[in-house]
């Protein structure tokens, strides 16, 4: 693995291209652990900073993922998902595997009171889950629901199901519209560990508000998903 130091192409880009070819040509299979960055730097005769930048570029493109304390690995296939999945209010009969991290009834803090437009210290359900696909964590979910909307909600209700399904099927809540915000986010510490990625990994954070036909907000959720597992798309027809 060599680069051309007389080329006008930046060193990190050349390293990136060599590593990407190793992956796309299947020389490095899914799950293959890359040599340590120091070792790659010696192989390419470049600095570790150059190697690190090349690796980060490939992580951002979905070819690699980094596990905290373990190393860098070749990613599996990246799933294409319609971005409207965050907007749809329809239900289905499929199973949606999740790992429940926490489930509690609490007094809403000032931030959640504002988000859900509730009276001060109104009771809410606070739910923290990890979405699982093929035994791999792909998304962190933080959901807040007004207690009065679903007072008998239990952990059994939310096991392997979507919040929308529960609200509509069990509590007959008439959902009308969804508003979603997308912002850049850097995942760190416990969140990175939950997603099995390296702390400091750049991701997108989704913020979702769900409304009834009466205009009440009945769900506020935030989602943090692994960039190496999903590519979002949308289509427009003319």
Q: How would you sum up this structure, described in words?
A:
With 238 residues, this protein is α+β, with helices and mostly antiparallel strands. The protein folds into 2 domains: 11-74, Arc Repressor Mutant, subunit A; 79-233, Chorismate lyase, CATH 3.40.1410. The chain contains 6 helices and 10 strands, in the order αααββββαββαβαβββ. The protein has helices at 11-24, 37-44, 48-60, 110-116, 163-169, 189-195; strands spanning 64-67, 71-74, 79-82, 98-107, 123-133, 136-146, 175-187, 201-212, 217-225, 230-233. The strands form 3 sheets. The protein has a 6-stranded antiparallel sheet with strand order 4-5-6-9-8-7. The protein has a two-stranded antiparallel ribbon with strand order 1-2. A hairpin with a 3-residue loop joins strand 1 and strand 2. Helix 2 crosses helix 3. The protein starts with 10 loop residues before the first helix and ends in a 5-residue tail after the last strand.
């Amino acid at each position: 693995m060599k680069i051309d130091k007389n080329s006008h192409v930046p060193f990190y880009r050349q390293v990136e291209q060599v590593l990407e070819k190793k992956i796309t040509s299947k020389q490095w299979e899914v799950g293959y652990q890359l040599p340590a960055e120091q070792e790659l730097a010696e192989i390419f005769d470049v600095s570790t900073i150059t190697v690190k930048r090349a690796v980060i570029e490939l992580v951002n493109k979905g070819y690699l993922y980094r596990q905290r304390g373990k190393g860098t690995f070749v990613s599996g296939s990246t799933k294409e998902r319609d971005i409207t999945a965050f907007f749809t209010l329809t239900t289905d009969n499929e199973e949606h595997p999740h790992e429940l991290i926490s489930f509690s009834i609490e007094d809403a803090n000032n931030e959640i009171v504002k988000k859900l437009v509730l009276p001060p210290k109104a009771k809410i359900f606070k739910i923290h889950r990890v979405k699982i696909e093929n035994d791999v964590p792909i998304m962190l979910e933080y959901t807040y629901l007004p207690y009065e909307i679903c007072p008998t909600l239990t952990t059994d209700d939310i096991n392997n199901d979507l919040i929308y399904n529960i609200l509509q099927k069990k509590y007959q809540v008439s959902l009308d519209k969804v508003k979603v915000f997308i912002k850049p986010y850097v995942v760190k510490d416990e969140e990175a560990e939950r997603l099995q990625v390296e702390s400091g990994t750049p991701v997108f954070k989704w913020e979702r508000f769900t409304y009834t036909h009466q205009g009440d907000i009945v769900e506020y959720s935030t989602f943090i998903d692994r960039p190496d597992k999903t590519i979002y798309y949308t289509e427009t027809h003319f």
